Amino acid sequence: MAFEYTEITDPLFVENKGQTGEDDYIMVRAKQYSHVPIKIPNWTPQAHCYTTLFKQYEQELLEAEVYPDDVWVISYPKSGTTWTQEMVWLICNDLNFEAARAESLQIRFPFLDVSLIHPTDTSSFERAKNTPRPRFIKTHLPVSMLPRRYWEVKPKTIHIRRNPKSVAVSYFYHSQGIHYRGSMDTFLRSFVREHQFYSPYHAHVIEYHELQDCDNILYLSFEEMKHYLPSVVRKVCEFFGKAYSKPELELLYQHLSFKSMRDNPTVNYKSRDPTKKGEQFIRKGEAEGWKKELTPEQIQLLDEWTKEKVPNPEQRKLFE
């Protein structure tokens, strides 16, 4: 068996799972990982949080095809993924704004592994398989769970990360808009116990940054995009061998502005359905919005969590 499944027995989780909507959560650990080119000595992957749906799709995950002309965007959830996807798709498609506005990002950039956490009418792996090439693929998978073919093919990939406090706040509102029924405080305490989808968070980020001989991956951060978008766009253009004029790039910056993204129904998925309650998919887009959302006690909780999980000072810079 390629994966090991364990029930979550943490008392806080058990106490709240019926009220929060997390009854079917499970921890999954990859047992076959020697093919992952990672520099961490004696590395063993940790278990990650999914739903029991994972068992149904594990073979499709293992056997997922990967092509040399694929473009992948990888992240832990709520790290600036949608923003990055839209930027990457446009840069790789000659800044075709008309085509971008005509088709949902979900279609242009399928979410490979969503079937592992949410019921879907069609397998997300099947959808990705049937997407016309060149494909654009989104995933939140950790390094230990990427399809084996990924490491053989090494498609062009962007990895995006974000400050953990910003991730925590954004993840709470996102989850609340879909299924979560608990308070922010309960969510945060579950989050630091690694009991939210795709957790553990720090391990995800560190492991991607500790890969070796992976020049197919360009690393970005949400904060860098927020404060230095033109610089990030230049790096991404160079990575994909693209060049655009200054007026063309100004149109791209305008398209990628928070207001434009928030008001764009092809990327801000939930805004397309006025009858659906909850927060918009793209909510505030702030680099340090957590300062307005979290109490001093919650900030301390998250900061102490990062200190505990990331004792290496160099690695801790990834979470600033």
TrEMBL record:
Belongs to the sulfotransferase 1 family. It comes from Anopheles gambiae. Signal peptide: none annotated. It holds the Pfam family Sulfotransfer_1. This is Sulfotransferase domain-containing protein. Keywords: Transferase. The lineage of its organism: Eukaryota, Metazoa, Ecdysozoa, Arthropoda, Hexapoda. Residues 68-310 form the Sulfotransferase domain. InterPro entries: P-loop_NTPase, Sulfotransferase_dom.
